[in-house]
Amino acid sequence: MTSREGTVDSSSKAEVSGASQEEIHRMIVRRQIRAGVLAFFAAGMIATGAPNAEASPKVCWSPTALAHKPSLKEIKKGDEAYRPKPRWMSVLPPPTRAPVGAIRRVELPVESPKLIALTFDLCEQPYEIAGYDGAIVDILRSRDISATFFAGGKWLQTHEEQAFQLMGDPLFELGNHTWEHRNLRVVEKPSELRDEIRGTQLVYERLWSRLYKRQCLARDEKNFAHEYASDRLSLFRFPFGACSPGALEAVAAHGLHAIQWDVSSGDSTPGLTAEQIAKGVVNGVRPGSIVLFHANGRGWKTAAALPIIIDQLTRQKYKFVTVSTLIHTPGAKRDIRPICFDNQPGDTNRYDLFSRQLHRTYEDFNNRRNIIPPKPELRSSRFPAENP
Ligand SMILES: [Zn+2]
Fold first, then answer.
1. In this structure, which topology does domain 7-368 adopt according to CATH?
2. For the chain, what is the mean pLDDT?
3. ∠ CA(181), CA(353), CA(363), 5° rounding?
């Protein structure tokens, strides 16, 4: 089986470095599923002496289906964008705890190539349907650049086909960016904190099982699309880059590595030109860096800046990898902090007041329209104890 950088690869690395019982269980289940699927198609070939036309898996998406569509970049607001929370249960075993703390970058061993991880947030707030900037994805695919996308659970639900395409791509991996982009530093109710983390885990797992059922090939036509996607998310990114000690603990208890960045592209700031974004990123990175961008329609000039960044960093011999590959690089030392910040400690605290006002606006919205958000059924044996 062809390996991939990222989530699937990280399982293999866990196997080498001493996997937990649960990781071993997952690997066994995955391999059993793969073996079963391959045996099924092999049986079709043996019976006819030739590839069985009916049993031969098809490619999931044509190049046209994968290509950028400008209308998808638009952000829609208001009632029509309302989406209920997920209500299904997880079938996976409980996750292994992750280390507590926010990873900003890694220090690579001296013999390592100059690895760097580009990350793209797919944030979606309540009462909006955020965009999907396929132009960014087209550039990454055409230049064979690995990347990590941090998706909101609600975004995954409103962009299912794009989510499948990212999950099933050999270059990409997905991470959890909360359910609806609440600021977890100021979320007061433990149930809200829990739902922001679990909602995304669950919607992703449901998507994975649906991608698995499709039994179609990834664009490389070598493997099934679902084989390029981890069956659960193992990375997490805090909205606003803001966290509290309780939120860091909750994320770790859910088996998630909290991933921040050491270089912010500033691409969500209107008015920054592509050249300014590119200059900031190229001057800011060093080997082991994690760079923040947006692919939800709020990266205003990201698609224009990206080719400049890729060209210049490639010339400097950088290699682009997923965050999973970066943090699991043998010998890499993670820069893991007990606090979250953008450039300097304390700088994301400025969102506290704004976020509290935003949360009140959402509640008012519900009250005015008599919308009672459905109580999510997110408890299951696979999750850690309440209010960690
Ligand atoms: Zn975000």
1. TIM Barrel (3.20.20)
2. 83
3. 55
